[in-house]
Amino acid sequence: MIKRIAVILYTYLFLDDFVLLYPVYALLFSDTGLSVGQISSLFVIWSGASLVFEVPSGAWADAVSRRHPEAWIVSYERGTGLDAALAAGFTAVGPLRVWNR
């Protein structure tokens, strides 16, 4: 039973990042008249930009959250997410759910 649940969980985690929109983007780009080389270049630029911007922003977020644990969080929590945030010690500051702990 546990092995089956683990297989389902790992399959879900794998498919979570398995985005089927990229072939659709390629079709949309080709409909606008871009060549295969140009579409490939766009995907390379897209991948490079995400690497260049996401890795440093993740490192910055880790550093800031450790130095400033009182940092504010902005989110749109409701239902169980709202209950969990309140239980974790956050307080709602406004209608847009700006959290401060």
How would you describe this structure to a colleague?
There is one protein chain. This protein is mostly helical and 101 residues long. It has a three-stranded antiparallel sheet, with no helix packed on it. The protein has four helices and three strands. It has two domains: 1-68, no CATH class; 70-101, no CATH class. The mean pLDDT is 77. The radius of gyration is 20 Å and the shape is extended.
Whole-angstrom Rg = 20 Å
**Strand coverage percent:** 5-15%
Content-based structural category? mainly alpha
Strand order of the largest sheet: 1-3-2
Please count the helical segments: 4
Head-to-tail CA distance between termini: 40 Å
Helical coverage, percent range: 55-70%
User: Low-confidence parts, pLDDT < 50 over ≥5 residues?
Assistant: none
Topology:
Layout: H1 2-16, H2 21-31, H3 36-67, E1 73-74, H4 80-87, E2 91-92, E3 98-100
Antiparallel strand pairs: 1-3, 2-3
List keywords for this structure.
101 residues; mainly alpha; 4 helices; 65% helix; 7% strand; extended
